[in-house]
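Folding Task

Wanted — backbone structure
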Amino acid sequence: MAICDHMCRGRYITGIGTGGLISDFKLLGLTDKFERREMMPEAIDTIHAI
């Protein structure tokens, strides 16, 4: 992301969401949309840590 931001001269914006396809989450054993929302803070913290 840092390289993209540098190449775009500071105009790079990253969008983060829970995802849209239920079939993707069923592969991971997740079926509850609220469970996906509960996982978002941890995912964002992980992205920030990287």
Remarks:
- Residues 18-50 form one domain.
- The mean pLDDT is 84.
- Residues 33-49 form the longest helix (17 residues).
- Residues 33 and 45 are 20 Å apart (CA to CA).
